[in-house]
Design goal:
three-stranded antiparallel beta sheet; elongated; about 5% strand; about 400 residues; single chain; mainly alpha
Length: about 400
């Protein structure tokens, strides 16, 4: 027997809370209904013991949520009941963390909780966009269609992320290789030359002396370098995750050179327009859609000013002028938004904008990668060249000295 905490409403409309025992959540809810209570919420009471499980550290991939949404839409469209579809998902899901979430959602739905409300209890799995669209589908009676749109939205977002990540793999690998080469030369090659310099005697050139000092510091105080690097990473992440730091970092990203800032802006615009288009197409009210879109935009430079846009739309103004006044969105975005509003096809126009910027991002990333490759090779060459020159400078001085003595 398990203990469940519940919130229920009696026939007079009064809400009460308490605890009840039952074999499972369904049996506990049935016992409450026998008492004449309508279940509002019911959950198993948390135990006092500490359970250690490595499954808690597992991650739910975006692709798994996408597949789940697609399967749920297909099953509901085939005529299966929502509860039956959730049972099938529960059996087919291999990710244990996602399976636990589906079980919890199914248990809530089984006792009469709406699907959107049940999903809202798991914000780390189902974000505001997902929950709001499911709620709109429940209200509009088109849950199958809405879940299909959710899957498409998640697929597009995931494809955009993969495009950016795959484009950055090669430059990151080259940069990491360059750093490893520099560390290896400083720690293992320079000490060999240092013994030769000690035998030669005399004063070393400034560049050579700097490399020798750096090598000695790296070999003697390597732990300080590691602690310093870890401290910098920790400080950067703490600053970036703070309210003020996040806004500053998002602003800096938009100003990165070599068109990186332009790519960041296009990614944010594509995500913004696609999310807003998907929400409006699913029947979510425009003010709520703008609020959700702002919170899921991924860039504070875009999301923060959206409060002003929401206020102006609330006052009866159309969407395009407030967006244009922000100075964040390109002119094409605001113009196509205005056309979409005038023709009554705002959602379709927003999806066209998102598709256009997806293509722009892919083209820009390809161009950026082709530029970064030679630059990274030049950087590696400069690093290796500096170390080699620093090591051979004393030899050049010795040769010059020998030559001068021979001439005399």
């Amino acid at each position: 027997m398990s203990t469940f905490v519940y919130t229920a409403r009696d026939r007079a409309g009064h809400t009460s809370s308490g605890e009840i025992e039952g074999e499972n959540k369904t049996a506990a809810a049935a016992a409450l209904r026998i008492r004449g209570l309508a279940v509002v919420d019911i959950d198993e009471k948390a135990g006092k013991g500490i359970e250690i499980s490595f499954d808690r550290f597992s991650r739910i991939k975006a692709s798994e949520i996408t597949v789940m949404a697609r399967q749920l839409a297909t099953m509901i469209g085939s005529g299966l009941s929502l509860l039956r579809a959730l049972y099938i998902l529960e059996d087919q899901t291999t990710n244990k963390k996602l399976k636990e979430t589906i079980v919890a959602v199914r248990s809530d739905v089984e006792v009469g909780t709406a699907l959107s409300v049940a999903m809202a209890k798991h914000p780390k799995v189902f974000n505001d966009l997902f929950v709001s669209m499911v709620k709109a589908g429940e209200v509009g009676g088109n849950l199958e269609e809405v879940l299909d749109r959710v899957a498409i939205q998640l697929e597009k977002d995931d494809n955009l992320k993969r495009t950016v990540k795959s484009a950055m793999v090669y430059p990151v690998m080259i940069g990491s290789f360059a750093i490893l080469i520099l560390i290896a030369m400083i720690l293992f090659i320079i000490p060999v030359f240092q013994k030769m310099f000690d035998d030669l005697g005399g004063k070393l050139p400034a560049l050579t002396q700097f490399m020798v000092n750096l090598s000695e510091a790296g070999r003697s105080y390597w732990y300080l370098f590691l602690l310093g690097f870890a401290g910098l990473v920790f400080a950067f992440r703490k600053w970036k995750n703070s309210y003020k730091g996040r806004k500053q970092w998002d602003t800096i990203k938009l100003r990165f050179p070599m068109q990186i800032g332009d790519i960041v802006r296009k990614v944010a615009v594509a995500r913004f327009t696609r999310t807003l288009g998907t929400l409006t197409a699913s029947g979510v009210p425009i003010l709520q859609a703008l609020d959700i879109t702002a919170r899921t935009a991924g860039n504070r430079v875009i999301s923060d000013p959206m409060k002003r846009v929401i206020e102006r739309v609330k006052e009866g103004e159309s969407l395009a002028p407030p967006l244009q006044s922000l100075g964040v969105f390109p002119m094409m975005v605001t113009q196509m938004t205005a056309v979409g509003e005038e023709t009554g096809a705002l959602d379709a126009m927003l999806h066209k904008i998102a598709d256009f910027y997806d293509d722009e991002v892919a083209a820009k990333l390809k161009a950026l990668t082709s530029i970064l490759e030679p630059i990274m090779m030049i950087v590696i060459g400069v690093i290796v060249g500096l170390v080699v020159i620093a090591m051979y400078l004393p030899m050049f001085s010795v040769i010059q000295t020998i030559g001068n003595q021979a001439n005399q």
